[in-house]
Amino acid sequence: MSQTVEEVNAGKLAGGVELQPGHLGMKTHHLKLFLAILGPGLVAMLADADVGSVITAAQSGAQWGYKLLSLQVLMIPVLYVVQELTVRLGIFTGKGHGELIRETFGGGWAWLSVAGLAVACLGALITEFAGISGVGLLFGVPQVTSLALAVTVLLVVVWTGSYRRVERIAIFLGLFELAFVWVAMRAPVQGHELMSGLVTLPVHHRQYWYLVSANIGAVIMPWMVFYQQSAVTDKKLKPNQYTYARWDTAIGAVLTQVVMVAVLVAAAATLGKTHAQTPLDTVGQIAQALTPALGVKFGHIVFGLGILGGAMVSAIVVSLAMSWGFCEVTGDSHSLGNHPLEAPWFYGIFSVGVIGSAFVVLLVPNLVTLSVAVQVMNAFLLPLVLGFLVALAVKALPLEHRLRGAYFWVVLGVVVVTCALGLYGGLRSLWN
Question: Rounded mean pLDDT of 355-359?
Answer without folding.
Answer: 92
